[in-house]
Amino acid sequence: MSTVTANKTTPTDKNDRRKLYGLIAEFETPGQVVKAAEQVRDAGFKWWDCCTPFPVHGLDKAMGIRPTILPIAVFFAGLTGTIAAFVLQSFTNASDFSVWALVWVTGYPFMISGKPFLSVPAFIPVMFELTILFAALGTFSMMFGFNGLPRLHHPLFRSKRFRRVTDDRFFVVIEARDPRFFQSRTQAFLETLEPISIEAVED
Amino acid sequence: MSHVNVTADLSERNVELGSIGGVARNACLAVGIIGLAVAFLLPVFGLADVTWDIFWRSWLQTWIFVLEISLGAFFFVIIQHLTRAGWSVAVRRPAEVIASNLNWLWIGFLPIVGLLVFGKASHLFPWSDMEALAAHAPEEAHLVAGKEAYLNTPFFLIRSAIYFVVWGVLATYFWRASIRQGTETGDRTTLKMQKISAPAAILFGLTISFAAFDWIMSLSPAWFSTMFGVYFFAGTATCGFSAIIITCILLQRNGRMVNLITNEHYQDMGKLLFGIGMVFWAYIGFSQYMLIWYANIPEETGWFLARQMGDWGWFSVWLLFGHFCIPFVFLISKHPKRNWRTLVFAALWMLFFGWFDVYWLVMPTIPHDLSTFATYDAAAEAYAHVGTGLLNPVNWLLLAGMLGIFTWFTIGRLRSHPLICTSDPWIDDSLHFENM
Questions:
Q1: Degrees, nearest 5: CA angle A99-A102-A104
Q2: pTM (predicted TM-score)
Q3: pLDDT attached to residue A134
Q4: Chain B residue closest to A36 (CA)?
Q5: Residue B254 burial (10 A CB sphere; 0-12, 13-18, 19+)
């Protein structure tokens, strides 16, 4: 049985009619949300999401999410680190030309225990470390970038019901900006997924 | 919960090897016997310039490679119990069987024992005949004399016996207990295996390090590296993990374990091979190299110098690229790990370079007159003609021989029991395991 709750939130701001953000459908188990996600995917929605308290295996596939390109980007971030470390060390330790980097800097060939100036084994630890550093920072910043983070507020936080997403409830969210979104029709569609409740959330 | 509905077919037809593999098994035995016999004939008739010194060195090298396969699989089994891994139940039995070969592999070491006992091993282990060493390399003899309390034949044999007992007993235990676990209900045996896995891991770490010191490092007794045991361990992971992957794929190609071993398992085994057998190996190998390169002490650098002179220079470069650089780029993405064709290619490649690595460790000898050269270039020029002997048929015959017998045993043991422990408490976890 699905109980449909109309949005009763009276706008607190005076005379300010809020825009509809979307519809959220609440489910009780991961299995239900995976099944629902498959149907939303097949219905052709583009601007929608699933919110769960923990990672649900198989949900990405059920939602039809394309694999992330993050790993490829991270590989090149790491490669940049490797090359940067090599160039930096060979320039500073094994060359004597000047380069303009805000100020003029000059390489200083530095003889260490009789080794050749360009001693790759000595450079490798730094190349390794910078590879890791660039890859890690790249992962972190690109993940934030791709996800539109940091974000301090989200319309879904207005919903009291949605708070249980951090505990024991699973939600499908269809946003109003989706071209296939029509409040009444989408609501009827969500009801066919047999959620325990549907709520309209305003922006 | 899983959205991909995999029907887990645990029927006998799917989880027992049955009559399959009989022909292959006999062929392996034939290759094994013929390989060893022909290899043996080479030094007897002096064919292909094979002397007994070369023969026994190659024997030791090949035997260590085969041993590495079993030790790597043994390590795999231990860590699964130690970490209470659920995902690996579907692939653990092949690993246990490969590891169980440790209870007879000691036979391959008996000829070396014979050489030591009859005092004929001075070309292999120079410390075993101090008088001969003092005669032609007094400086080295002086260094090695200080290690006599450790490097002497009786103690060496006692230590070797300890390694074989520890490995043989533990590997057989994990194999047998897992079979017993498959015939009973409840988790008694599972818990016991977990309990034993912790001391087993410690014993494994100690024995494998000392075995590396004894059997490989002491081939050049004046040289030493504290990192050596770990380097050998990384090599065992390379060979063992590759062998497990190849075995699982062969089983599936023969219509067994269908839908029981999935791409998810292959991806994780690929990760282990990538992480430990490739990256960790390179990390340890470089750490060992860089400290010696930086300090630049003749006592230590001789070992690497011997691996840079003549053809060994290119050999070392191949080792670096073949064991690390090329497979690193090939296997870094998840896609080649999830495709059996690319994964089996990577595993075969890594198994070959695991062998290549042992060859690099065992076969070169450090010239005794290195310290008489004024410069590196002078020494390199004097020994520019040194060959690696890689293409000598004795290596390949012994490899075919020992691998043949090893495979014969492995297939036989795979056939005698189910290929998966069907009553393991984590069997469901494993069959429905997903990475993403």
A1: 40
A2: 0.88
A3: 97
A4: B3
A5: middle
